[in-house]
Design a protein that fits this description.
Two copies of one chain form a homodimer. Chain A is mostly helical. Chain A has ten helices and no strands. Chain B binds a DNA duplex (30 and 30 nucleotides) through residues 7-10, 13, 34-36, 44-48, 50-51, 54-56.
Chain lengths: 185, 185
DNA sequence: TCAGTTGTGTTGTATAAACAACATATCCAA
DNA sequence: TTGGATATGTTGTTTATACAACACAACTGA
């Protein structure tokens, strides 16, 4: 028990920053977004940004994990089903997020963003696998999570290449049987 | 010169409060809105509300004047035209505001709200009249502003009685010639 | 009628956020 | 190449906000 209870000001400020960042991402591409842009929109001081985030990549990372968690059904996440709906919603979240991040090509940042996305996916998959297969060796679960994170990310790259001629849900649907085969271990 | 520059936190907090109040007004009627409702939605402490506003009526008052000023074309307001468009936009703002405030009848608060609305209208009309007729006696301008505020408010009551079967713009249009005759002094 | 609940308004103290000033890095055009 | 402009981080001090606790008013239903 005994949660420390975070100060509401902290929650509010982080929310303001994240929301502003998401909105800005829909307006222009990642590399053109400055800290000042974000803090102006959020109506907070630039120095306060650094009180909460190390840099803009830290923000990206946390915004992404936020988006992923929100899109996942919390109860399902807790219950560790890792079923079809989970894959679809994770993929959809990633696809949407990338869509909003990159309105145009942006060389030189893709790698960083890609890494961050994969890391977040990895964390989520690993947790879910741990609950689904509690007796499996950690090494195996980690490897599976790694492969899943790369696989899902790759699928989103592929989807983006076809320029969303298909809904993300529809796109990933066909791949799910193969994924599920893989994770039965 | 020399503006004191208000602390951004103050501006931000007031905005959060006002926005939350406006949103809540669209969900339920005025008498059912508590300070806690507002501050929860705004993610601020209840005590902070009292740092900025005396009570909920003070908030109502300032939210209203905010709404009115935003709906008025700033440049026009500065230039003191007091023309047809001004009347239409003021009436529309009042009508919309009342619409959002009172989703159902709420006895016992109507008088207070009505008074607040008229007071705000009075202030705006008086300022505009002063600029349009700088040489006129103050007493005359005040009386005119009073009559205009009551008149416009009365029109909004009448409009609401017909339950918005007509757009506010259309409704007030027909009355404008008579109003304008009155203010030529 | 009265007790329980809910809302209002206030106060002293702890803390997050604003600010200004600074150093450093990056970029770009002259 | 240089210098001006713009962006990133950092720090010490001031100030707005959170919090907890309180008194009190208004309502409710038993």
């Amino acid at each position: 028990m005994s949660e420390p209870k975070t100060d509401p000001r902290i929650l509010r400020t982080r929310k303001l920053i994240m929301d502003s960042f998401i909105e800005l991402s829909e307006e222009k591409e990642f590399k053109d977004i400055t800290i000042k842009d974000i803090t102006s929109k959020a109506m907070i001081n630039r120095a306060t940004f650094y009180y909460h985030f190390q840099d803009i990549y830290d923000l990206l990372e946390r915004a992404l994990s936020e988006v992923l968690l929100i899109n996942l059904d919390y109860s399902t996440y807790g219950e560790s089903e890792l079923n079809n709906e989970d894959f679809v919603s994770i993929f959809k979240a990633i696809a949407d997020f990338q869509q909003s991040l990159s309105h145009r090509c942006h060389r030189g940042y893709e790698d960083t963003i890609a890494r961050i996305i994969r890391e977040q996916l990895y964390v989520i998959f690993f947790k879910m696998l741990q609950k689904k297969h509690p007796n499996e060796k950690e090494k195996t679960l980690k490897l599976t999570a790694t492969m899943l994170s790369w696989g899902i990310y790759g699928a989103s790259v592929e989807w983006r290449k076809n320029n969303s001629s298909m809904a993300p849900e529809e796109f990933i649907e066909s791949a799910i049987p193969f994924i599920k085969q893989g994770i039965e271990l």
